[in-house]
């Protein structure tokens, strides 16, 4: 694997090996980075970190020569910091985000991906204000140096963070901009309506509006739906509307060197993980040239 390309996938973390098992799974795919949840993504129940075999996982990471600064944690989906109408839910989201940041630090990691949330019909202005207030409160009090990567979203319903301009607003209004960056999801950006097949142009626009220095990680996903569909349904590499060549160009683009790139593509027949083959495809020069022929 090329020195400056960090490519891996989402991996599970489950009993009995927990984090040790996550690392083993990533290595079995030929990955040199990975992403995981510290518990189920659809709820906030979390086992104590003492039970998660973190020391053994970190030892294997060191033995394998992986860089912990390139490994990603994803926050649970259900945290919504974009809506203040229900104060108890808003406070719950802030509390669990604080807890998740502390858990990331316990793993020795530095990046937590977070969906910005939904304004739930209250409007974009309220959503932006709610996100800024929540991030200020959390980052004032979490006591870590972990960075939050706000994920680009597909624009379903009241989803926030679906445009580069919204993310720019958040990053320029929070009190701790050094603690917050962006996770660029290829499927989401395509579904929002940005023609990411214009690779250089898309990267230039992102750099101009947000700044490549704020790009903390990239989710590499094909899309089941066409440009601007606002659907957010991932497809396997080369089988969707974005296509292999475009996704491969993001993997190998020199301006994106060193940025962790994570596959979140669906299992084959809902059973078999595709990641080993997809990583091989995206990094194998002979395969790439054959595909283009």
Describe the protein in words.
- The structure is a single chain.
- With 293 residues, this protein is of the alpha/beta class.
- It contains 10 helices and 10 strands.
- The protein has helices at residues 18-28, 54-64, 87-106, 124-141, 164-173, 186-192, 199-209, 244-252, 275-283, 285-292, and strands spanning 7-10, 33-36, 72-74, 111-114, 147-151, 180-185, 215-220, 222-223, 234-235, 261-263.
- Helix 4 (124-141) crosses helix 5 (164-173).
- The protein is globular, with a radius of gyration of 18 Å.
Terminal CA distance: 23 Å
Roughly what percent helix? 25-40%
Structural class: alpha/beta
Rg over CA atoms: 18 Å
Proportion of residues in β-strands:
5-15%
Low-pLDDT runs: none
Chain-averaged pLDDT: 95
Strand order of the largest sheet: 1-2-3-4-5-6-7-10
Q: Based on CA inertia axes, which overall geometry fits? A: globular
The run of helices and strands is EHEHEHEHEHEHHEEEHEHH
Please report the total strand number as a whole number: 10
Total helix count? 10
Largest sheet: 8 strands, parallel, barrel
List key phrases describing it.
about 290 residues; alpha/beta; eight-stranded parallel barrel; about 40% helix
């Amino acid at each position: 694997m090329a020195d400056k390309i960090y490519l891996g996938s989402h991996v599970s973390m489950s009993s009995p090996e927990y984090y040790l098992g996550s690392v083993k799974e990533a290595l079995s795919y030929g990955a040199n980075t990975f992403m995981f949840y510290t518990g189920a993504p659809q709820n906030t129940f979390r086992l104590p970190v003492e039970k998660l075999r973190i020391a053994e996982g970190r030892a294997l990471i060191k033995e394998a020569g992986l860089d912990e600064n390139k490994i990603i944690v994803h926050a649970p989906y259900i945290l919504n910091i974009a809506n203040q109408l229900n104060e108890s839910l808003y406070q719950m989201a802030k509390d669990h985000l604080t807890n998740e940041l502390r858990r990331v630090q316990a793993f020795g990691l530095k990046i937590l991906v977070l969906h910005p949330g939904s304004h739930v019909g209250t409007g974009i202005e309220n959503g932006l204000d709610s996100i800024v207030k929540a991030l200020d409160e959390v980052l004032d009090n979490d006591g870590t140096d972990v960075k939050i990567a706000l994920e680009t979203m597909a624009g379903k319903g009241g989803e926030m963070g679906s445009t580069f301009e919204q993310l720019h607003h958040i990053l320029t209004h929070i009190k701790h901009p050094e603690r917050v960056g962006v996770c660029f999801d290829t499927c989401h950006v395509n579904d929002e309506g940005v023609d990411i097949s214009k690779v250089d142009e898309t990267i230039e626009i992102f750099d101009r509006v947000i700044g490549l220095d704020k790009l903390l990680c990239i989710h590499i996903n094909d899309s089941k739906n066409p440009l601007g569909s606002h659907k957010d349904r991932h497809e396997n590499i080369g089988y969707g509307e974005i296509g292999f060549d475009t996704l491969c160009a993001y993997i190998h683009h020199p301006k994106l060197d060193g940025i962790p790139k994570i596959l979140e593509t669906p299992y084959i027949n809902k059973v078999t993980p595709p990641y080993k083959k997809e990583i091989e495809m995206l990094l194998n020069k002979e395969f790439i040239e054959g595909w283009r022929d």
